[in-house]
Amino acid sequence: MKHLERHAPRAPMLRLAGLLAGFAACAAALSGTRLEAWSRRSPSLRAAARYMPHAAGMIAAAPRTVAPAVRAAPPLTGRRARALSVWNKPMREAWPAEHAWTPAVEDDYSRFVTAIGRGIVARRCIHLDDCLNNPAINPLYDSAEMRLGLMPDCADLPYLLRGYFAFKRHLPFGFVAAMGGEGGDPRYLHRGIPVLWRQWTDFRTPRAFFDEMPSYVHSGMFRLSPKIEAGDTYAPAITRDSVRPGAMYYDTDGHVLVVTEVFPDGNIQFIDAHPGGSISHPRFDAPRQTPPGAALWGGGFRVWRPQRLAGTAIARTRNGALRDFAPFHQYDRSNYVVGGAPAAYDDWVRDALTAQR
Fold first, then answer.
1. CB–CB of 298/222 below 8 Å?
2. What's the rounded Cα separation, in Å, for the pair 89 and 95?
3. Could you give the 3-state DSSP secondary structure of residue 72?
4. Quick count: other Cβ atoms within 10 Å of Cβ 182?
5. In this structure, how many other beta carbons lie within 10 angstroms of the beta carbon of residue 150?
6. DSSP H or E stretch at residue 250
7. CA-closest candidate to residue 160, choices 299, 24, 65, 258
8. Is 45 exposed, middle or buried (0-12, 13-18, 19+ CB in 10 A)?
């Protein structure tokens, strides 16, 4: 008697389940689902079948060998695609520091910058977004690429190129975020020194990093005395090993250019960005009768100071560990000699970079 009392209240529920099973059976039969096995595994459906004979009949008669049709999911677009993009994922997931900056990686970075530069010189792109989103130009392009609305000025461009490469190759990356010194305009400080640093892990997502980093960096980050070791760049010897694609030229009037190619005759191809986001491609042809400014102002050619991850923080290589560190090489006028005769700075640079030397 207790057994019947326990199950009697469930009868209405089983009738309802039978009705639902009937509808499910109709839908499943049309799609070719193997319902006999399904019902055999489900005591509830077997009980429901007693109250819904039609459902039981449909379950028994359902096709047993027809595989369900599989349809390819349509590609995600719009807001949903942006939400799932690696660019919008948490930084720990999207940009792990799995690799280290090595000489071989630096060679890859030079090739990446050359590819972008050649695209600009050939007028296949004039904005950074266009260059990065063109698989025929960008060797790091992948299907997850998205437009970031990048509109770099001259100082932003080298930082964005370096940061983009670091993101794609899962390398650590940090940058000077503020300068101190004498003077009011941070771009033209006297005795400038870095006073604030940021790194990629300080940002929520890669997208946030590339959106926000340009608001920190400016040409004043290059205005450094060679003795400053806390900056992002340093003054190298003027050789083909150092002045190569990815190196920069800082004009102490406040402009920054990126080296994209060094030709056999020692001439140099640059790219430089302008307010509004356009990128031009000047060469080192214009006569420059004076050196690039005093060493104190950090003008002339500069290269990226190697970075590594020490624990969870960026560490920058000290001057004494840099094989090509030459604090006064390009500032000492007595070095400007070509063929035994005094020469202008630009002639000396081209002669120093000639491939046949």
1. yes
2. 9
3. coil
4. 8
5. 20
6. strand 248-251
7. 258
8. buried
Show the CA angle centred on residue 347, arms to residues 341 and 351, nearest 5°.
85
Between these two residues, 123 and 73, which has the higher pLDDT value? 123
Tens digits of per-residue pLDDT, 169-183?
999 999 999 999 999
Region of residue 351 (left: phi > 0; alpha: psi -120 to 50; beta: else): alpha
Residue from 288, 294, 287, 284 nearest 332 by CA: 294
At 300, phi and psi to the nearest 5?
90, -155
Q: Do 279 and 271 meet the contact criterion of CB atoms below 8 Å apart?
A: yes
Q: Which two tokens stand for residue 114?
A: 């050359």
Q: What is the pTM of this model?
A: 0.77
* HSE (side-chain half, CA atoms, 13 Å) at 84: 8
291 within 8 A of 344, measured Cβ to Cβ: no
Q: Which residue has the tokens 């003795």?
A: 227
